Amino acid sequence: MDRPGRNEPCYCGSGKKYKQCHMVADLAADREGRAWADAARDLRLAIFEFADDARFEDEAGPAAARYWNEYYSAETLPLMSPGEAERFLDWFAFDYTLPSAGERVVDIYRKEQGENLSLQQRELLAQWADGAPLGGYELTGYERQTLRLKEFLSGEMIDVFEPGGHGNAPLGSIILGRPVRVQDQYEFFSLPAYIPPEEIADLHNTLTAAAGDGATDNEALRRHNVLYIHHALEQAKLAGRPPVTRLDPHHAAEGVQQRHRHQRVRIKGPAGQTENAPQLVQAHRKAI
Predict the structure, then answer these.
(1) Cα–Cα distance for residue pair 236/58, rounded to 1 Å
(2) InterPro entries in the record, alphabetically (predicted)?
(3) Which helix (H) or strand (E) element contains residue 98?
(4) Which residue from 20, 70, 118, 191 has the highest number of Cβ atoms inside 10 Å of its Cβ?
């Protein structure tokens, strides 16, 4: 909604000037919204950097091999593009149980760093840690930057704010991401990817066969959600596209700068702008 000028009539129809009516409340809401956006941005970055710490390096390699279906491993982790690294660290932090600890990276972060967080960040962290795993969401519609999505297995509808809008994804695509709540709306925790409609194929049967009776249960989905990624990789290969960046000769020919392990992670800020990242990473969402 476009707000009136200070001395114009208030939008509520009271007949008062805006400055004498809703302006103070609107400015307070703006400040609160910025505070929540800043808290979410800083918490995202902290979780990414915590998951990317050297202490987890021995377990990140096997986890990457599982997530990427052997297209990346401990030796090739530095060859992930910034977007690939962001999506992998998202899954590694929230959905992967560390064999050595028997718990997730986000649970360790919560125990070790929770007391150092602001009240807003503690609330966000609790919601995110206990929230839905990475999943697939059919794009059924959109209005500007709000995506109307249907969870692929349960059919549950959800609206997600995505600063880049639907990008190149046509209606019917399966958006791959983790919706997390930030104040009064859902956002994706990391840069999402998508599976085009023509490449969905037997994905539903694959997922339900793996998860069994718990196909819509969060814990079952957390154990099997890598199947979304494996399916997307296989479909990309069948379509003649390089399934991952390191196998793309176009990127290799351009000499695209690759991310080094433990280099500062590039993530979206509160307005959807990616910190310290090329424009291509900010705006482009591709089929994996």
Answers:
(1) 29
(2) SEC_C_motif
(3) strand 97-98
(4) 191
What is the rounded distance in angstroms from the CA atom of residue 18 to the CA atom of residue 138? Answer: 41
pLDDT at position 90 is 97
For residue 254, which amino acid is it?
Answer: E
What rounded mean pLDDT belongs to the chain? 86
Q: How far does CA 122 lie from the centroid of its chain?
A: 19
pLDDT digits (tens, 9 = 90+) for 170-227: 999 999 999 999 988 999 999 899 999 999 999 999 998 887 767 668 888 888 999 9
Query: Tokens for 46?
Result: 């902290």
C-alpha to C-alpha distance for 146 and 254, rounded to whole angstroms: 34
Q: How far apart are the first and last CA of the chain?
A: 36
AA identity, residue 264:
R
Instruction: Say how far apart CA 265 and CA 60 lie, in whole Å.
Output: 15
Burial 271-284 (b: 16+ CB within 10 A, else e): ebebeebeeebbee
Spatial distance between the Cα atoms of 241 and 263, rounded to a whole number of angstroms: 28
Q: Check residue 213 and give its pLDDT.
A: 67
Domain positions in the chain are: 33-247
Which one, of 186, 145, 149, lies nearest residue 167 by Cα?
145
Q: What is the mean pLDDT of residues 145-164?
A: 94
Within 10 angstroms of residue 111's Cβ, the number of other Cβ atoms is: 10
* Pick from 277, 273, 283, 267: nearest CA to 49: 267
Residue with tokens 């007391």: 115
